[in-house]
Write a structure and sequence with these properties.
The chain has helices spanning about 20-50, 55-60, 80-90, 90-120, 125-135, 145-155, 165-170, 175-185, 190-195, 200-210, 215-230, 235-240, 245-255, 260-280, 285-290, and strands spanning about 60, 65-70. It is mainly α and about 300 residues long. It has two domains: about 10-75, no CATH class; about 90-290, MetI-like (MetI-like fold, Orthogonal Bundle). It has a two-stranded antiparallel ribbon. A hairpin with a 5-residue loop joins strand 1 (about 60) and strand 2 (about 65-70).
Length: about 300
């Protein structure tokens, strides 16, 4: 039996209708405009990094002896980027951020996945109350808990380590809700068959549920990578002034230095945004696709 080919929301046959064709054309134009508006700041930052300080501040001198700002730089030399890279010692801070990202992804998938598995499949006594409390925390801004969180980190002598950043990623109500919704859609017969084969709850999670949850695992990984890389406040409070500062913390301290100018800051921003862009490009299909459609069809 041939599988049905997905043709999108608008079938080619629908485009024969003039009204549908007009609305489809307008929607396409709007989407292209939205993409250009979203890419314009990124392109401006990337191209501005090739300019020198004079060209960035005043622009290029035209035939009328006036200076004009231009998007495209006069030269495409990488000397400025190399100088900013060496000046900031970005290798060390990249390694620190990668360590935070790896630990945060592992904790986000393990701890949140285990909690969601218990709420979705094990359902112990009082699980509805626990789930209601988790849903309630989604309405509380994360910054309101930063003070008691920092006090607890200080009392546990975890300052200057990556552990608070890793553990905070493992206690996300948003990730728990995503995991639970995915686990609820799994067929119970599959898990019952595994139980009949002698699997306990731990084996069910690590050998059955987790491998079959690759779509939602990828989505959680993308969210966790972006959150861990772009987080500033908690890493600044925990790691500020140490050799374990992340890229975002280093960017802030670098920006407030008296020895840097606008071009140095622009180039530092470019080095900061490159990894999230690469992650988005690599996993953009997993971000937009229906995570429930590719899970356990065999």
């Amino acid at each position: 039996m041939k599988s049905k080919q997905y043709t999108g929301a608008v079938h080619p046959y629908d485009l024969r209708n003039p009204r549908v064709k007009v609305w489809y054309s307008l929607m396409t134009i709007f989407c292209i405009f939205a993409v250009l508006m979203a890419l314009l700041p990124v392109v401006w930052v990337l191209l501005s990094g090739f300019k020198d300080l004079k060209e960035f501040n005043r622009g290029l001198k035209g035939a009328d002896n006036r200076y004009h700002q231009q998007l495209w730089p006069s030269t495409l030399s990488l000397d400025g980027y190399l100088q900013a890279w060496n000046q900031m010692h970005y290798v060390r801070y990249y390694l620190n951020s990668f360590a935070v990202v790896v630990g945060s992804v592992a904790c986000a998938m393990l701890f949140n996945g285990l909690l969601a598995y218990g709420l979705s499949r094990l359902k112990p006594r009082g699980w509805k109350l626990v789930y209601a409390l988790i849903m309630g925390t989604l309405m509380v801004p994360a910054t309101t808990s930063i003070v008691p969180l920092f006090i607890n980190i200080t009392k546990l002598n975890m300052g200057g380590t990556f552990y608070p950043l890793w553990l905070s990623a493992g206690a996300s109500a948003f990730y728990v809700v995503l995991f639970k919704n995915f686990y609820d859609a799994m067929p119970g017969s599959l898990l019952e068959a595994a139980r009949l084969d002698g699997c306990d709850n731990w084996q069910l999670f690590f050998k059955i549920v987790l491998p079959l949850s690759m779509p939602i695992n990828v989505v959680i990984m993308i969210y966790a990578v972006n959150a861990a890389w772009s987080d500033f406040l908690l890493p600044y409070l925990v790691l500020g002034g140490t050799k374990l500062e992340t890229v975002m913390v280093r960017l802030f301290t670098y920006r407030t230095s008296d020895r840097v100018n606008n071009m140095d800051i622009i180039r530092a921003i470019v080095f900061t945004i490159i990894p999230p862009i690469l992650v988005f490009i690599a996993f953009q299909r997993q971000i937009t696709q229906n995570v429930l459609s590719a899970g356990i069809k065999g």
